[in-house]
Amino acid sequence: MLIVTVVHDPDDARIRYRQLTALLAAGIEVTYAAPFEATHRRPPDGVTALELPRAAGRQRFTAIAAARRLLHRIGPEHDLVLLHDPELLLAVPGLDRHRPPLVVWDVHEDTAAALRMKSWLPRPARPVAGLAVRAAERWAESRCRLLLAEEGYRARFRREHPVVPNSVPVPDRRPPPPGDDRVVYLGRITRARGALEMIELGRRLAPQMRLELIGPADGDVAGPIAHAHAEGWIVHHGFVPNRRALGLLPGALAGLALLHDEPNYAVSRPTKVMEYMACGVPVVTTPNAAAAELVGRYRSGTVVPFGDIDAAETMIRTLHVDGERRERLGSAGWNAARADLDWRADGRQFAELIRSWSLKPQK
User: Fold this and answer.
1) pLDDT tens digits, residue range 284-338?
2) What angle do CA 106, 46, 85 make, to 5 degrees?
3) 143-148 contacts: CB < 8 A, separation 24 or more?
4) Is the pLDDT of residue 122 over 80?
5) Which residue, 193, 247, 183, is CA-closest to 216?
6) Confidence of residue 115 (pLDDT cuts 50, 70, 90)
7) Contact by Cβ (8 Å): 174, 280
8) What average pLDDT does the segment 247-255 reach?
9) Per the confidence metrics, is the pTM higher than 0.90?
10) Are the C-beta atoms of residues 269 and 294 closer than 8 Å to each other?
11) 3-state class of 148 per DSSP?
12) 217 Cα distance to chain centroid
């Protein structure tokens, strides 16, 4: 099969560390086309790697055109093509009608809602772009197979499509209990994900507690993040490959998910919340519906109001002095992740689904 992305980092956790791992474990041969050079990533072992330009900001046409040429040249040599970017749907029309591969679009965000947060897209153009995305979704539903990462995405489509949850790897052994001097955040750092709130939170907590941000910072917050790091308010690790990044979580006092009130966050379960739970770390999250439902159902953390730094600080200081509560929340999260959020089970389902689609002739 052929996996293609021009938007995601080739080391994207869902693609490389979950889906690829599951496919290779199932004995499925994989070709992976992605922007390795542009992101300074090494291709993973066990796959055939092909280079593509990276689509970033408004500079997307070159990458999409290159992906289209690649897809039309080698796509028919593969039983199945898995696309990870909605932009790549533009590359599908005109594929060899005599030898068409089965094209699958992996739907793992609400793209129309996400466009509202893209600083590179002019604000007046965002509603039009959202309508275009919805039209593309309807087109894709009639021309491709769809694989959904969230149950909540079903409402966007007219037909039924399989859901393989965006779950996380869960350690077999119980993680160490949460400590009292370190707070963590894992993921891309943006304004909408609470970058400025975390800077202020780190300033208030230092030096008694250390706030570690693990992940790359978007351009509009890179300066403030670098300044806060230099001042000692936070420790910014930058991009860290997912497996190493997960190793930085166990033993933390709390994991932050201070996402803003955005439509794209309401339905999607934040991966970081599940990763904190899998590592036995209590969660402090804003009340986005999906995140609040997770910590409420499993009693693995606490919810603070949107943009309320005082409430987040109060909760962290409460956990700092209450070791019994920290351990109770962390243990509940790990137990829940083992039972319901483990990629090992979902990954086998994913690989079995891909294999079954590959063996079936396209209608």
Assistant:
1) 999 999 999 999 999 999 999 999 999 999 999 999 999 999 999 999 999 999 9
2) 20
3) 143/92, 143/103, 144/83, 144/89, 144/92, 144/103, 144/104, 144/105, 145/102, 145/103, 145/104, 145/105, 145/357, 146/104, 146/105, 146/107, 147/82, 147/104, 147/105, 147/106, 147/107, 147/350, 147/353, 148/107
4) no
5) 193
6) very low
7) yes
8) 98
9) no
10) yes
11) strand
12) 15
Residues 229 and 226: their CA atoms lie apart, in Å, by 5
First-to-last CA distance in the chain? 18
Token pair recorded at residue 16:
């490389």
Reported as half-sphere exposure (CB side, CA atoms, 13 A), residue 286 has a value of: 21
pLDDT at 362: 47
**Highest-confidence range of 16-20, 106-110, 121-125, by mean pLDDT?**
16-20
Distance CA 6, CA 56 (A): 9
Cα–Cα dist 121/203, whole Å: 32
- The alpha carbon torsion through 152, 156, 161, 167 (nearest 10 deg) reads -30
List the one residue out of 169, 202, 170 whose CA is nearest residue 185: 202
Helices (H) and strands (E) in the chain, counts: 14, 12
CB 284 within 8 A of CB 316: yes
Q: Which amino acid is at 46?
A: G
Whether the per-residue pLDDT at 219 is higher than 80: the answer is: yes
Q: What is the pLDDT of residues 258-297, one digit of tens each?
A: 999 988 788 888 999 999 999 999 999 999 999 999 999 9
Angle CA 331–333–335, to nearest 5: 70
Residue length of the chain = 363
Bridge partners (DSSP) listed for residue 284: 256, 302
Pairwise CA distance, residues 363 & 100, whole Å? 10
What does the angle CA 235 – CA 299 – CA 209 come to, to the nearest 5 degrees? 20
pLDDT at 151: 87
